[in-house]
């Protein structure tokens, strides 16, 4: 490897698989799906989702429960877990101006915006909450994380649809490489289990219609896949240069060694039929890291469980990495958390590299014969993983690839 290595020294996770890294890792490695009927979506054509279990917003204080949208609550809780694992305390920085925050989201505070729009229509403009925008804007998770951590460095909120969280991690690595920051708290957050988002995705025929058996609905790479299940959550990293981590005696969990991004420039919702943009992103990440496809032992695939995405992505993996890389999608467990997905899946990739355990693809029982890659399913696979690839592809044709190494 010849690329710049950004050390991951802390990970925080809030997903449908649980709150905290231990619960998440246990459920993802076991391949236990989380999809169920969602009360918020009752009466809609697709009333199921993957939701964070037992989440208590008040754990971040009484203000968080009423003044932060759910996506911001997820981001802050995950950020504090990552901070603690990295050995930092909020506000106790050698130089707070050298601490940056990058939190991506595709939807932002959509629950707040939907609720306040209903107030506007039913009760008039005088009853709309003055907190609507401070809760609902796309940058507010990033802003609140910076406030809570007392981080005075650059604070950014990339939006690249379902690649947003991965884009944030790639941008964080670039900030460390260029010296714009010494420490970056980066990731993605999303809380889109709302009537508008569920209805819009259903109208697009993007969601699975297996509503009579929600737990088996998200089945990436399966011959019977018929769409994704809406998810939510947050994934956060604490990232530093290797030298900075070493100087304070911190042991990296793993390292981000390559980052590639591209645009399909093809269609707002459908991937390029030959995966042009995905290929460009993966190639760019490999070149950035000074690696070849043969060096990649594992791919945490975007793997949405839609017919088209899985077919295109598997062809890209086969052509660029060959037959040696094991492939799985953790969306069989978590569903699709949209803009948070890339950060959550990068975290699972980092844990795979650290622990030598490849999570299986939940609900994958009959692999589509067109998927000519080494799919991991039924049970986890154990073995050394030196380099993993995490793919994230979003509406608008926006693609991000992250290479994570031991």
Describe what this molecule looks like in 3D.
This protein folds into two domains: about 240 residues, 3-Layer(aba) Sandwich (Peroxisomal Thiolase, Chain A, domain 1), CATH 3.40.47; about 150 residues, Peroxisomal Thiolase, Chain A, domain 1 (3-Layer(aba) Sandwich), CATH 3.40.47.10. It is about 35% helix and about 20% strand. It has 13 helices and 16 strands. The strands form three sheets. Strands 1, 2, 5, 6, 7, 8, 9, 10, 11, 13, 15 and 16 form a twelve-stranded mixed sheet that branches. A hairpin with a 3-residue loop joins strand 15 and strand 16. It is globular, with a radius of gyration of 20 Å.
Percentage of residues in helical conformation: 25-40%
Assembly type of the chains comes to single chain
Please state the overall shape, judged from the principal axes of the Cα atoms.
Answer: globular
- CATH class of the largest domain reads Alpha Beta
Q: If classified by CATH, what would the architecture of the largest domain be?
A: 3-Layer(aba) Sandwich
The major β-sheet equals:
12 strands, mixed
Q: What is the strand tally?
A: 16
Class by helix and strand content?
Answer: alpha/beta
What characteristics describe this protein?
406 residues, alpha/beta, twelve-stranded mixed beta sheet, globular, Peroxisomal Thiolase, Chain A, domain 1, 19% strand, 13 helices, two-stranded antiparallel ribbon
């Amino acid at each position: 490897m010849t690329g710049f290595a950004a050390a991951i020294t802390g990970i925080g996770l809030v997903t449908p698989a649980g709150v905290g890294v231990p619960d998440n890792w246990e459920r993802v490695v076991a391949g236990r799906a989380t999809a169920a009927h969602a009360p918020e979506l009752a009466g809609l054509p697709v009333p199921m989702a993957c939701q964070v279990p037992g989440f208590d917003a008040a754990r971040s204080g009484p203000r968080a429960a009423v003044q932060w949208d759910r996506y911001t609550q997820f981001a802050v809780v995950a950020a504090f877990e990552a901070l603690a694992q990295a050995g930092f305390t909020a506000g106790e920085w050698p130089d707070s101006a050298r601490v940056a925050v990058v939190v991506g989201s595709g939807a932002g505070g959509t629950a707040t915006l939907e609720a306040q729009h209903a107030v506007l229509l039913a009760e008039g403009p005088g009853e709309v909450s003055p907190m609507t925008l401070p809760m609902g804007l796309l940058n507010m998770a990033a802003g609140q994380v910076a406030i809570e951590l007392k981080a005075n460095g650059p604070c950014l909120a990339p939006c690249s649809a379902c690649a947003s969280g991965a884009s944030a991690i790639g941008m964080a690595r670039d900030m460390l490489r260029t010296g714009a920051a010494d420490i970056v708290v980066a990731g993605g957050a999303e809380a889109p289990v709302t009537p508008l988002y569920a209805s819009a995705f259903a109208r697009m025929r993007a969601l699975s219609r297996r509503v009579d058996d929600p737990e088996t609905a998200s089945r990436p790479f399966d011959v019977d896949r018929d769409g994704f299940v809406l998810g939510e959550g947050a994934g956060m990293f604490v990232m530093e240069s290797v030298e900075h981590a070493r100087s304070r005696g911190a042991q990296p969990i793993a390292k981000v060694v390559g980052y590639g991004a591209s645009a399909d420039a093809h269609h707002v919702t459908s991937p390029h039929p030959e995966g042009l943009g995905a290929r460009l992103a993966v190639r760019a990440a490999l070149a950035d890291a000074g690696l070849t496809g043969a060096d990649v032992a594992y791919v945490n695939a975007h793997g949405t469980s839609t017919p088209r995405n899985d077919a295109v992505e598997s062809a890209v993996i086969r052509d660029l990495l060959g037959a040696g890389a094991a492939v799985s999608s953790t969306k069989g467990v978590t569903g699709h958390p949209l803009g948070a997905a890339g950060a959550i899946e990068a975290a699972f990739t980092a844990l795979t590299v650290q622990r030598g355990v490849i999570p299986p693809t939940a609900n994958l029982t009959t692999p589509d014969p067109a998927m000519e890659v080494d799919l991991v399913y039924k049970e986890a696979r154990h073995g050394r993983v030196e380099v993993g690839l995490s793919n994230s592809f979003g509406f608008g044709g926006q693609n991000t690839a992250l290479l994570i190494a031991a």
